Amino acid sequence: TPTLRWEDAFSPAGRRLSSSAIREILKITQAPDVISFAGGLPAPELFPMDAIRQAASSVLDRYGPAALQYSTTEGHLPLREWIAARVNIPPANVQIMTGSQQGLDLLGKVLIGEGDVVLVEAPTYLGALQSFAPYGPRYLQMQTDEGGIDLDALEEQLKTTRAKLLYCVPNFQNPTGRTLSLERRRRLVELTARHGVIVLEDDPYGSLRFTGEEIPSLYELALEACGGPDGSHVVYSGSFSKVLVPGLRDAWVQAALSLVRKLVQAKQGADLHTPTFNQMIIAELVHDVMPAQIGRVKAVYGARAQTMMAEMKAHFPAGVTHTVPQGGMFLWVTVPEGLDTTPLLERAVARKVAFVPGAPFYALGGGENTMRLSFSSANDGQIARGIRALGETLHEALA
Ligand SMILES: Cc1ncc(COP(=O)(O)O)c(CN[C@@H](CCCC(=O)O)C(=O)O)c1O
């Protein structure tokens, strides 16, 4: 019998799939003695274990077998009601997702047609590029500066380009840690509305601000401008992963009713619904446990960001620069042109420290002399040792 060559069997969509650099690196960093600045992993020692244990048992007491039964694709109503009330929209405009990663995949499936132009930041979250790839987008990179998306450049770009979608992470951006100012947000909402560009606002870190003032989301600014959720061209993706725990895979999308209805159809074909039990546990935690957890996490991540920046100042070579995040989990390092951080990772891991090379965060290539560092899941001692080891690696590479 002829041996089946699976490479020949993959569909065009299948052929467009590639591995996540973050997931691949996480395998290396499993070694216990490696200090990892790679994955955007929430600090496990901060997980509210007792509260979750109690929530799980009270959910089983309250709902009985229904907590373990199939449930609706739209999601657990009490959870949708809580999410909707935060931005004063009807629960019908909220769709629960199995992680915001699923939201990105289903939004790609229902919105991106072959060759559609998708505007992305340079660099952007590589997981979005991975989710969108099978649907055949034509990526265009938006110019960015220290303040994130350059709106003057975008205004010029939209004069000559018809774009379908604009994907962005306005708060504490993955991977740069940058935050888009209120002034730029207003311009972005107005400009995209004028040009009929759909905006995907991906905001898993928005609650984790440790310095500076809160800034309204693009979604909230659009609500004001478009008079309600069904007239808004902005789609908002939120997640419980970084403000509670990532392993329960609970997130959501806020969007116009027509889009939510299409997402429901896509989700039916993907996983029927997000795990019933997990949604009910999250719904127990959002009232009291989550606000306290957010306070704890912000304080720890803010302190760890300060530690990391102080250690970089002390141990990194001249000519190496980094962003200064106001929240979230990441900062972005730029090394002198000509030094490629992808081969550098191996030498860093030999010194028991890991990071994510920057190149995979660029949709159209470039960024070889950059890297992403996460400060969320290493304690101060590990940050000091890891940054010192990374500094030695950089000194050696630049010698
Ligand atoms: C901008 C942005 N959008 C969506 C996600 C996915 O988060 P969830 O699916 O809601 O947990 C993430 C999570 N990214 C982390 C987690 C991925 C790590 C992993 O693959 O385990 C990271 O970049 O390291 C994100 O940063």
Task: Trace the largest sheet across and list its strands.
Answer: 2-10-9-8-7-3-4
Mean pLDDT: 96
**Which molecules are bound in this entry?**
ligand N5F
The topology string of helices and strands comes to HHHEHHEHEHEEEHEHEHEEHHHEEHEEEH
**Please, how many helices?**
15
Q: Could you give a short account of the major beta sheet? A: 7 strands, mixed
Q: Please state the structural category.
A: alpha/beta
Distance between the termini: 58 Å
Tell me the fraction of residues in β-strands, as a range: 5-15%
Number of E-type strands: 15
Q: Return residue spans where pLDDT drops below 50 for at least 5 consecutive residues.
A: none
Radius of gyration: 21 Å
Summarize the structure.
The protein is of the alpha/beta class.
Structure in words:
- The protein is α/β, with parallel strands linked by helices.
- It is built from 15 helices and 15 strands.
- The chain has helices at residues 6-9, 12-15, 21-28, 49-63, 77-86, 100-111, 126-132, 151-160, 182-195, 218-226, 257-270, 276-285, 289-315, 341-350, 380-398; strands at 35-36, 94-97, 117-121, 138-142, 144-145, 148-149, 165-168, 198-202, 234-239, 251-254, 321-322, 330-334, 353-354, 356-357, 370-374.
- The strands form four sheets. Strands 2-10-9-8-7-3-4 form a seven-stranded mixed beta sheet, with helices on both faces. Strands 11-12-15-14 form a four-stranded antiparallel beta sheet.
- A hairpin with a 2-residue loop joins β5 and β6.
- α4 packs across α12 (276-285).
- Residues 20, 22-23, 26, 39-40, 99-101, 125, 127, 169, 174, 202, 204, 239, 241, 246, 251 line the site of the ligand Cc1ncc(COP(=O)(O)O)c(CN[C@@H](CCCC(=O)O)C(=O)O)c1O.
